[in-house]
Amino acid sequence: MRKKTLALFLTCVLAAGMLAGCGNKDSKDNNQVENSQGTESAKDDQAAADEVAELIDAIYVQERTDKTDEQCAAAKEAWDKLTDAQKALVEGEEASPEYFGADTGDASKDDPRNQDEIGENELLVVSFGTSFNDSRAQDIKGIEDKLQEAYPDWSVRRAFTAQIIINHVEARDDEVIDNMDQALDRAVANGVKNLVVQPTHLMHGAEYDELAAAVENYQDQFESVKIAEPLLGEVGTDADTVNDDKKAVAEAQKRIAELMSSDGNTRKRHAFRFVLDDQHVITHLSQFRNAEARTLAQKCFETGQQISEAIDHLDALREQYAKRKTVTLSKQILESEKALEEACGKLSSMEKRVRQLELGK
User: Fold this and answer.
1) Backbone phi, then psi, for 307, in 5-degree steps?
2) What gap in Å lies between CA 126 and CA 86, rounded to an integer?
């Protein structure tokens, strides 16, 4: 009886050992399958991101073609299909997650001014351009609106000289802005007789020369064509020539730089500093004459402190990423960069408004 019991016991132990061995083998096999699937998933994510990067690089060019509109739409469609993790992996010669992912404001506040029904008189405002929606709406559109207000008998239209920016805005925001040739073709098609081209360029240079060359090609299509000078007018016959406007701007820039980079003792004495213009620095809120400007300046100060903290946090994340590259850290860096960019844009707009209120402009 004891022999049978012992035999039965040994049989059970042996069976248990065999089952355990099978269990370990199955577990090992499962781990290998999971690792393999994880590797394949990572490859698929990178492949999807690389496809979008190629599409972005294809439209990051200065020359427009018959396929440009189609390429812009394809790049945005491919981007929208990516997961958040895949978007963080987008990287090309020019492509990055910020191309589509950065929040630069509300594009609907802008007006591309590419409408027909122009009439006989057109004032074409030509800018290099910007893909930052808030800046475009406030600055470029602001100039165009003021010109339309000043010259109600003329139709104000827009053209950008940077096709790279035109493509960016079209792909991301579905806002179509004319380049020089498109704007001039539109003018001809609308029967414009008198064309005035007003650049927003600061001074003469390659952009202005290309603008003038484009207009010259259409010279015989209008009864009269005039091209206004850049803000600082003629630079001179060579780089050493300085006119009064250029000199005044250079001196103002130097004064502002000196005010912005004041010594440590000055900064220590005045924790609060607001450079109002190249002549005035406010070191205490009570010095503001305008109540609204005073309140907004306080918000500027607080936002500036938040930005300093955000920069420190972003630097720490980048140091971690240098040691341990993970999708999670990459996503955190992207989100931090986006938040920092938004904060800087907000601060810039607030500072501009403070100056307008305090200086009465």
Assistant:
1) -65, -40
2) 38
Q: What is the Cα 196 distance to its own chain's centre?
A: 30
160 forms bridges with which residues in the sheet? Answer: 127
> What's the CA gap between 133 and 208, in Å, rounded?
23
Structure tokens at 103: 């929040």
Pairwise CA distance, residues 351 & 361, whole Å: 13
Closest by Cα among 141, 150, 247 to 200: 141
Instruction: Give pLDDT tens digits for 54-82.
Output: 999 999 999 999 999 999 999 999 999 99
The token pair that represents 287 in the structure block: 């010095």
- What are the C-alpha distances in Å from 130 to residues 163, 175, 211, 334? 11, 12, 17, 21
Q: Rounded to 5 degrees, what are φ and ψ at 272?
A: -100, 125
Look up residue 54 and give its two tokens. Answer: 């190629």
pTM over 0.70: no
* Residue at token pair 């924790």: 271
Phi-psi category of residue 31: left, alpha or beta, with phi > 0 → left and psi -120 to 50 → alpha: alpha
Strand pairing class (121-127; 274-275): unpaired
- Enter the tokens of residue 181: 């040739």
- Give residue-wise pLDDT tens across range 239-249: 566 667 667 77
Residue type at 152? P
Q: Is 126 helix (H, G, I), strand (E, B) or coil?
A: strand
CA 347 to chain centre: 16
Check if the beta carbon of residue 192 is closer than 8 Å to that of residue 118: yes
- 192 Cβ contact partners less than 8 Å away, ≥ 6 residues apart: 118, 119, 120, 121, 122, 222
Cβ atoms of 118 and 190 within 8 Å: the answer is yes
122 CA to centre of own chain: 30
